[in-house]
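thought: fold this chain, then report.
action: predict
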Amino acid sequence: MRNKKKRKLLKAIIITTLVLLTGIVIFYLYRMYENIEIADNYDAKQTKLSTTYEQNVENLYEKNNSTTDMIEKVNKSVCGISKLSNTGSSILSTATETELGLGTGIVVTRNGYILSNSHVTGEKYSTCYVTIEDKDTYAGTVVWADTSLDLSLTKIKADNLIPASFGISKSVRVGETVYAIGNPIGYQFRRTVTSGIISALNRTVKLEENNKDIYMSDLIQTDATINPGNSGGPLVNMEGEVIGVNSVKITSAEGIGFAVPIDVIKPVIESFYNTDNFEEANLGVYVYDESVSKYLNFKERFSSGIYIAQIIKGGPADGKGIKEGDIITKIDDVYLDTVNDLRQYIYTKKPGDKVVLNVNKGKYKKDIEVVLGRK
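observation:
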């Protein structure tokens, strides 16, 4: 009887132990299942990261395509310019830049106005030769030029051209990506594109021409490679807008090139486009801005405005109470910081228009009215 009771007790103990063991196994299996779920979440995160990477690669691809499309569009407005005629149908032949005096121009209106450097095209009334899209070459006449800016406009008998788009050079910031396009050396390197950044703004360069010192101020400095044949070509931003005209290359240093800001020439282009004419007004003074004054060792120090270095005898400003050494701070309530600020404003006026100059005479300021003359 006792043995029978012992067997029942042993059987109960075994059953209880098995139940406990089964419970423990089920518990650990459940915890393992939870870990597997966590691992699944981790994989989901990895998938999300992978998708983001793929999207970034796709965005970069689209950006590169966008840049390529932009350059192709701008290239349609880039032309070749030579001072000499070539026997072929195009000046962009196998002849070298030196043989033909080859440079670059920018189509700026549909009706045949070409923007370039005056040292490329020659001065006003000069003849040069312009090739559009490597095909047709036209004899062009320089209708406007300013050697102090090194800019010119040439008219060719052509229509339905593709003009470049303009940006706002006043809004350019140091560090922006830019592209320089031009025709260095000759035909085999036509429409060469180089890229870089805006290295500095409002730079002044001292040049010697005909045994005279010339100062080009308010220039855009870039490290985009610029060679002699690039002169007159566009400096464009990432939107394909022209923000400057490539002009000067410092030969004694690498990665230093300069462009004339596009803003200064806009009023001249607009006038020729609308009227086929431009009456250039004249204030009758020679002026420098602060960046040039450092070269000339002026005793006067000024942080804003432009310095009157000389008053042209018999000119519009002569006899109006303006003296050499005065500082023009404003013209018609437009603040002036650079010589190009004054040029750009005067270009919007005509001979006979009245302007009011706010002149700083040291101890006091005075508003002086001047009637603009004809240049």
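thought: worth noting. Residues 127 and 141 are 5 Å apart (CA to CA).
final: tokens above.
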